[in-house]
Amino acid sequence: MVANAERILAEALKLRREERTEVVDSLLRSLDEEEGDELDDEDRGQLHAAIARSDDQFRSGAGVPAEVVLDRLSKR
After folding, report:
1. Which of 11, 32, 44, 57 could form a disulfide with 62 if both were Cys (CB 3.0 to 4.6 A apart)?
2. What is the pLDDT of residues 7-27, one digit of tens each?
3. pLDDT at position 41
4. What one-character-per-residue DSSP string does the chain give?
């Protein structure tokens, strides 16, 4: 770790637990914002639609038991 990061870490460790939690949360969110994703609006819409369909299937009881899925996967 570079000296500047070590100094920042040493200061951060002096904060109260709640304050350290806020710092960690902010740092993690900043990583997500930097990386982003490669989805365009159409792909993102399709992803959200697929998630909604899966949620609807799960809530209606139309899901497949994990044992069945794992058995199918092991036979591939």
Report:
1. 57
2. 999 999 999 999 999 999 888
3. 85
4. --HHHHHHHHHHTTS-HHHHHHHHHHHHHHHHHHH-----HHHHHHHHHHHHHHHHHHHHT----HHHHHHHHHT-
User: 56 to each of 3, 4, 43, 61, 71, how far by Cα in Å?
Assistant: 51, 50, 20, 9, 24
Predicted local confidence at residue 23, as pLDDT: 92
Domain ranges of the chain: 3-35
Amino acid at 75: K
Q: Give the integer Cα–Cα distance in Å for 64 and 54.
A: 11
Contact of 13 with 20, CB cutoff 8 Å: yes
**Token pair 């993690």 in the structure block, residue:** 28
Cα→Cα distances 49→5, 37, 45, 58, Å: 42, 17, 6, 14
